[in-house]
Amino acid sequence: MVSEEIRTIAEQYDIDLSKIKGSGPNGEVTLEDLEKYIREHFLPKVREERKVFGIRKVIAERLSKSYREAVHVTLNMETKIDNLIEMRKKLTEKLGEKPSYTVLMLKCIAKAIRDFIEVNASMEEGKIMIYDNININVAVDSPIGLITPVIRDVDKKSLEELLQDYADIVERAKSGRLKEKDFVGGTFTVTNLGMFGVDSFTPIINPPQIAILGLNRITQKPIVENGEIKIASVMTLSLTFDHRAIDGAPAARFLERVKYYLEHPEEVFESE
């Protein structure tokens, strides 16, 4: 007889208990069996584990004390969005619907994360865990406030799959139907305040992750390019990172890579 606790947890993850091979009496599914199944199917696979020692340990201890008195480090970088806007028009013709800018940017961000996988990590108990799965928490407005459900394996999904996942997450968030499985296993967070007219802000890290990227509003402004003034659609990217786990230079290089893919979306969507 399966306990009520096991049934409740299984329901939160939409798990069919009949598909789990039980190790209890008469093949009964135990709590350990269920926990193992959840780890294998909902949590990210660890790519590598690095111990924090030496100078990095000293830096971590000092910055941990500093963090209790201040916020993590935030970098802001401006990027042109004109090419992404054009790409959106092409994809709209192909898909028959307008893909949201958030989803298009998620694809670009996931590709940049794959290039700089060290930002796809968490830090707990003196260890930096770098993950292979790119599971992005996306901040969504809901009746109970801003929440961050997760979309799994963003880099591996087609644009159509990602659009479906995002629409499902937003719809269930607004109707209060998200489950526990929607909040576990995230490795990086993206929050978009552009729709509220925000030009830049300081995103707060989603612990135990080490980084969060804030997206701001797209606006037109004059820029100087090749000695000429032109009007361009631009947006500011706001990256907050945990300085205990990553230094400013690699964080800046990652942000530059995000900027590059947003400005060269053909390298992201050429196969879509």
Automatic annotation (TrEMBL):
<keyword id="KW-0012">Acyltransferase</keyword>
<dbReference type="GO" id="GO:0016407">
    <property type="term" value="F:acetyltransferase activity"/>
</dbReference>
<protein>
    <submittedName>
        <fullName>Dihydrolipoyllysine acetyltransferase</fullName>
    </submittedName>
</protein>
<dbReference type="InterPro" id="IPR001078">
    <property type="entry name" value="2-oxoacid_DH_actylTfrase"/>
</dbReference>
<dbReference type="GO" id="GO:0005737">
    <property type="term" value="C:cytoplasm"/>
</dbReference>
<dbReference type="Pfam" id="PF02817">
    <property type="entry name" value="E3_binding"/>
</dbReference>
<keyword id="KW-0808">Transferase</keyword>
<comment type="similarity">
    <text>Belongs to the 2-oxoacid dehydrogenase family.</text>
</comment>
<dbReference type="InterPro" id="IPR036625">
    <property type="entry name" value="E3-bd_dom_sf"/>
</dbReference>
<dbReference type="GO" id="GO:0031405">
    <property type="term" value="F:lipoic acid binding"/>
</dbReference>
<dbReference type="InterPro" id="IPR023213">
    <property type="entry name" value="CAT-like_dom_sf"/>
</dbReference>
<feature type="domain" description="Peripheral subunit-binding (PSBD)">
    <location>
        <begin position="1"/>
        <end position="38"/>
    </location>
</feature>
<dbReference type="InterPro" id="IPR004167">
    <property type="entry name" value="PSBD"/>
</dbReference>
<dbReference type="InterPro" id="IPR050743">
    <property type="entry name" value="2-oxoacid_DH_E2_comp"/>
</dbReference>
<dbReference type="Pfam" id="PF00198">
    <property type="entry name" value="2-oxoacid_dh"/>
</dbReference>
